[in-house]
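Why predict the complex rather than its parts? Because the way molecules touch one another can change local conformation, and only a joint prediction can capture that. The input here totals 479 residues.
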Amino acid sequence: MTARRIFGIETEYGITCAPPAGRGAAVEAAGADAADGEGAPRVITADDAARYLFRKVVQWGRSSNVFLRNGARLYLDVGSHPEYATAECDDVHQLVVNDRAGESILDEMTEDANELLAEEGVPGTIHLFKNNVDSFGNSFGCHENYLVRRRRDFQAMGDALVPFFITRQILTGAGHIRPRAAGGASYAFSQRADQMWDAMSSATTRSRPIINTRDEPHADADLYRRMHVIVGDSSVAETTTMLKVGMTDLLLAMLEDGVRLRDLAMAEPMRAIREISHDMTATVPVELSSGRRMSALQMQEEFLTRVTGYLDSTGQTAELTEIQRRVLELWERGLRALREQDPSLVETELDWAIKGRLLERYRARHTLALDDPRVARLSLAYHDISARWGLATTLAARGLMARITTDEEVREAIVTPPPSTRARLRGEFVAAAQERRRDITVDWVHLKINDAAQRTVVLKDPFSPTDERVDKLLAALQA
Ligand SMILES: Nc1ncnc2c1ncn2[C@@H]1O[C@H](COP(=O)(O)OP(=O)(O)OP(=O)(O)O)[C@@H](O)[C@H]1O
Ligand SMILES: [Mg+2]
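Output of the joint prediction:
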């Protein structure tokens, strides 16, 4: 096993209210082509839909920014994209389970909101999408958080990560139907690539960097930093999330050990990220700072070789966890699928391939162009989180989308925090406060009782699931 690490995933969801049945799901978000015709009933705006979605949350939490008893944060930011940030996990499998628990929570909220709409006679159905771009061209994100040990050369570590993140999309991209300027459309690896503008920056929205360098570790700042990665596509398939986080974790282990990858720096990163997304062969070379030219495929092969070489030479290979082995195996196989131009090697595991196959079959059956609105709707349905309308449940049931979690694990994670991290303390505190109807304030590091005494505990160690001070706080809450 490599050194223990804290992980968290934040997902912003797309939201829309589709007109009543018969007009196809989620037409608004599917694009102008499919938008309302004359005489169609008016549907509520995304802002209003988000308010319906959060009505119950605001009732019990008195805010649209709350922490849940499973340790996660649920909130509505500006721009009306509901966001779910998983609790701190210390294992990739656990993280995938917690990410899925977030989807289930939001799906249940959507069902409740749709009941409210029906009760109030508002026509339409709210849909939530785990994707990264809506029909108006707005982009929203899926951020990955990795705890790293603080080193003086954080910047150098970031520099080494940039070419990795720029090329990682050939494995972990969600697949994207991209309109072409000359008309028609082509299939690209990533939804997010066209929206990124900076390699590194401390602002997330204005300049949209690959890595956010704002120094906010949510932990002891003398020891740690939080690597806040903005660049990734939201993942639908559990195996894609697993690979996305797992490969990054292994590379970080190597970088934290002082290994550098200066020779792989790119001459023009922001140009490369787009070119690589648009090249489904993954073989078109991009220019490196050294003057050398390498394709995304070659670069990812190089990253994989260096990571496995590092694990071997430090004696860590034999100690890898089962999930880490799966990550390395899928990383290798994903690259082989590209090298041999044979997506069937990963067609149940990597989003771009699962979705690509789905769209191809549908187009062949109905003789449709890639830019046909019906294809856009199917593509969108891939990202619909609804167990009822979304395609993921059906695809998984038919063996067309792999899973690594069980329904039981996910159900458990809706109400229970990860047991091995700080999240456990937060979860217990929130649960106790809810049961006793006590007023508290919580964030990633603070637990506070809002009474005359204003007792507060600061949790600077995200690895620690136990704390005597919290035991006392819980006792005070229950007194
Ligand atoms: N010390 C830590 N190291 C790594 N990840 C952490 C740490 N503490 C918390 N996290 C994770 O980081 C994520 C923080 O989510 P949050 O949405 O609050 O992000 P933020 O970047 O602080 O704020 P915002 O989204 O409002 O800009 C969560 O998924 C959480 O589990
Ligand atoms: Mg966030």
